[in-house]
Records
---
Amino acid sequence: MAYTNSPMVAYTKLSPNHSGQRTHSIDRITPHCVVGQCTAEGLGEWFEKTSTKASSNYGIDKDGRIGLYVEEKNRSWCSSSSANDQRAITIECASDTTEPYAFRDIVYQTLIKLCVDICKRNGKNKLLWLGDKDKTLNYEPKSGEMILTVHRWFANKSCPGNWMFARMGDLAEKVTAALGSGTDGTDGKDGPTTTQGTQASAFSGLSEADVVKSVGTLFTADQKKTGILASVSMAQFILESGYGKSELAQNANNLFGMKCSLSGNTWSGSTWDGKSKYTKQTKEQHTDGSYETITADFRRYPCVEDSIADHSAYLLGAKNGSKLRYEGLKGCTDYKKAVQIIKDGGYATSLTYVENLCSIIERWNLTQYDVKESETPIAWYRVRKTWADSKSQKGAFKILENAKKCADANPGYSVFDVDGVNIYTPKTTAPAASADVPFLVKVSISDLNIRKGPGTDYDRTQFIPVGIYTIVEVKSGKGSTAGWGRLKSGVGWISLDFCTRVNG
């Protein structure tokens, strides 16, 4: 065939490090990470040295400029595999120098354009990412197909880095779409036309250890924004999605089993569009340990980052009546306490949820991804009558328990977090155990917990449906100012804060 080179090249310095003309037609593209924010000229100087014993067909520098170092007709020395280099166009991309070796947006945008150009000139109308080494190397591309490979499959290297590896499926999708539409795969402004972000499909070909490494920075960044321990959210991701390889993760980028309809469904900051969904069967565990299979609608996200953000927004904002469902989670630095808060709030039905999460955290040492205290802005807890009444403030505290003690000592005062959310109001006078019972109450919310005993320090058994119920005993307890009422049915106790008395 007649070989050509890309017209997108801005700089050329041909390297002596190559094996001459290919013995196989071009049907692969192999992106690499340089591990450095290099220039096209600097990369050319490096490949010009025979002592380097390496080269690539193209390079994309930190500013998105393309260099040509080995003509497409010739085999470069790039992938630690002569068989791969015989059939692949190899592309070195400027990257950060530390894991996950991220590319600048301009570099990724240019990579998409260059791959489109390579495919067009070589008669290909589809770019494939199969994700698995054995599947890929045993696959013989059809005449119109180009296939993506990675350096790590041929040597003990992380190349192209976990940042790019997580986007290989996205790259293939955007290039294929551009080949079909006749565009270059970008909008000419800020990058690719489709939503950028990590696709869970990238996890399918990774080991469990590599998945953990690839997502660590995402969860660390989330903690810096939300105050939720990265280790805890990562453990939930691993447990709920099977390291991002579950049906729901792969098809909907849903990493946490988030349903379309959730109890406490009124939180702010959701990244879900409110309509995209994925329907599947799922198992729910009852308090007696038995399981029930149901069909449910789950949220579909455009990328992994949106799933993480929505999950955190839910944990921070979901309510049980007028109170935060996961009160105390934000800013909690003890992963065991944080996990218990999530379980007590009713996140999961599994009876071993706490133990499972803690085991995952300890197995992978996930606390290494938690933001260090020195890196975390101080989350002051303010004690005021109302958030708007700043003049009433009694003090600001770094430690929540100290803020609660101050509020306890000042009737009419509450504790507010940095966002002005009331996270604690002291109990009023406890209800007398000898309250006039029995009496009827009306439950008007659909997500009121039934507890095994009178207080939030007792396990949740289930949610009580909306309706009228008989209370046969009243006791004071943690988490309720009006007291806890024991249901006549014997199934447990409910907070009277969220009930309306309908007689006597």
---
Amino acid sequence: MLIKNSRLLRVILVVVLLAAGLAVRLLDLTDPPLDFAATRQLHSLILARGFYYQMDTSSVQSLPIDQRQLGIEAAEQELQVEPVILEKITAVLYALFGRETFVIPRLLVSLLWVVGGIPLFLIARRFSGNNGALFALTFYELLPFGVIAGRSFQPDPFMVTVILFAVLFQLRWSEDHSLKNALLAGGFSGLALLIKLPAVFFVGLPFAGLVLMNGIKKAFRERHLVLMVGLSLLPVIAYYLIYALSGNSTANVVTNRFFPSLFIQPGWYQRWFMMAKSVVGYIPLFLAVLAFFLVKARNLKIVYACLWIGYLLQGFVFAYHISSHDYYQLPLIPVAAIGCGMVFALFLEKIELSAPKIIARLFILMVLIFGTALTVLKSWSEMREADFHYEEIYWKYLGDTIGRESKVTALTHDYGFRLQYWGGILPRLWKTQGDYAVDELANNLEIPFEARFHEAIDGSDYFLITLVNDFESQGDLHDFLFSHYPYSQGEGYYLFNLQTPLLVK
């Protein structure tokens, strides 16, 4: 075997892989975070800015008061479904460094994802030994999709890391039934649910499987059962209870996510599969599924099966998002990593049985080095190609052109977040074609066009279009605006003046 019982060598290799995972994510940290799930990242940026602008620090007080008020107002308008943990940490870091910078949230999330490699290695080692665990760690840290998504300013990467810690301590508790591991398993499970509710599928099912492994009667005799369940559920129940009592609707948690009508559409399954394939690849996906038959230990087989079942259940519950929002696939990465690690360990074992050990070791080492280099280069190439520095200039220009005191209705990028964050304008939004598709799935009643239009522009001075292709596909809006209002045109936008309508015969 490549690694036998050398603890020092094992630790060195793990540290090297963790460092490599962080290093590959450090490229171009100052680039606006629009490279992945731009809408979701901008949402978190707006919240972090709002919290930062409310702080009584010299760096905040030196900012123009209208800028601070706008930032706070924008944040207050945002729906806060999950606890805003990352956003508040980022705001504190802004205050410590004395300014907003994209480096902070990118680096924060990168560190959180990379740290998740530690519990992943310890979990994978139970499934496939040291060699398989090292391969799993390499896969987790350096998979190109994971590199891009694993530095994205949103709760999902943080959730994945905490899920891995939760599963690790659940496994440890199933092995020794100690109070320490019960506390850690429950605590991390509860934190995962607080970060984002879909975590329930990945911490709840393995936990249930391990508790029920020896039968229901024995399960209820577990002395730590109530403790772990309480630690897992009470924090998230308390949060959403307070959330509801404060006047917010908890229905927002699942609104426009669960659509059973999709279950009978073959195209939905195809889109879901293609999304999963784009994240981990055809071969790793196939090998990870096949790896189930390689698991020997009963508790490990239960956990691995439950992780896959959890992934499938998440897909059916969040039916729209699983096939349209690729970051809902992030929990698949560690599952695929564990599975591929098992296959790699088996492959290595077969190689060593059929070739001299030195040749086998060199061959596998070269494969690992070449594969690692290839994935790193691919990730760096993608990050270099994605340059969004011009975005800040463009949206500031639009804000200056329109006037920040103007009232604007807009069909624009990322639900108006770019216009808010850089342009200093809080627009009233016109729905995209995607929004109307979701409305159709949800069976929302269609309001006649002119009624929707006049409601949307009530009190607005301008109607801004930056989603030009979407605009051209909405024939009723397109024709009505051009026939009723004068407009100016620039690079990538139309600006209709609602204050001086045309005389229409």
